[in-house]
Amino acid sequence: MLTEKQILNAAKTTKNKNIIKNVGANLSSPGISFTGRYGTSKVSPNTLEDIQDALQTQKPKFTTEGKTLMNPIEARETSAYLPTTFNIGTEAKPFFVSPKKLANKLDKSNEGEDFFKLRTTEKDYLTDLETAIKTEGYKPNPIQIQIQPTGNATVYEGNHRLYRALTKGDKEVPVTFMYTAGAERLNVPFGIKQLETFVAEGSKGYKTEKEYLKYIDEVNKSYKK
Q1: Is residue 164 helix, strand or coil?
Q2: What is the β-pairing status of strands 173-180 and 143-147?
Q3: Which domain holds residue 119?
């Protein structure tokens, strides 16, 4: 298990460390073991054998439930429950990122499809979402990004919220990064060493209570123009 001190050391930069200190949750990294805490009850031997067989036969694609995925590991990720071992951002204290920077590093929704193509056709839902903001006020609900043990990141929940923020030109949007099965230990685009690369220019990635209320007020004002 990695301690909070070890995690902060791994984050490298002062800005990354401050983000983790202010909006990190579960500040330890238990990792994953197929024979230990997150083991056999989560990953069955049959599934592991299926993955190994697919790799040994060098299949370039792997199909599950009618969907063709890039590799058998991705198939495993989208078809099974993997425990969340680390979080950056919570509902009460989200991680604030630039929606443009976030979108530039994403290419999939949780269903394995291009999330822009998936959501731009859903005009009615987006209209309803904007109408609700105009009539009831903006209610922050962080976009949930799930980072898998391969390093892949998907929009677990919040496709519409991200699309809304992009179309409105919002500077920041609240998110949570949910690392599964020890993915917080990876040096990947969504890893803890890269947190600052998602932050909007001139921002720090987190807000005080007063700053959070100001952010909500600014979003509401943008719908009154």
Answers
A1: helix
A2: parallel
A3: 4-31+83-222
pLDDT of 215 higher than 90: yes
Please name every residue paired with 177 in a beta bridge, in sequence order, or none if there are none: 88, 145
Lookup: tokens for 170: 């919002």
Q: Is residue 14 part of a domain?
A: yes
Nearest to 175 by CA among 185, 193, 162, 190: 162
In angstroms, the CA 175 to CA 152 distance is: 17
Supply 196's token pair.
Answer: 């600052």
| 94 to 89, 97, 125, 144: CA distances (angstroms) | 4, 9, 24, 10
How far is residue 142's CA from residue 57's CA, in Å, rounded to a whole number? 41
**pTM of structure:** 0.77
> Phi then psi for 67, rounded to 5 degrees?
-110, 135
Beta bridge partners of 67: 64
Write phi, then psi, for 97 (nearest 5 degrees): -130, 165
Pairing of strands 153-157, 143-147: antiparallel
- How many Cβ atoms from other residues are within 10 Å of residue 93's Cβ? 19
Domain count, the chain: 2
pLDDT (tens digit per residue) in 107-150: 665 555 565 554 556 667 677 878 888 899 998 899 999 998 87
What are the φ and ψ backbone dihedral angles of 165, each rounded to 5 degrees?
Answer: -65, -35
- Considering the domain architecture, whether residues 186 and 139 belong to the same structural domain is answered as yes
Q: Beta strands 84-88 and 24-25: pairing type?
A: antiparallel
Alpha helices in 42-98 (DSSP H): 45-56, 72-79
User: Do residues 196 and 124 share a domain?
Assistant: yes
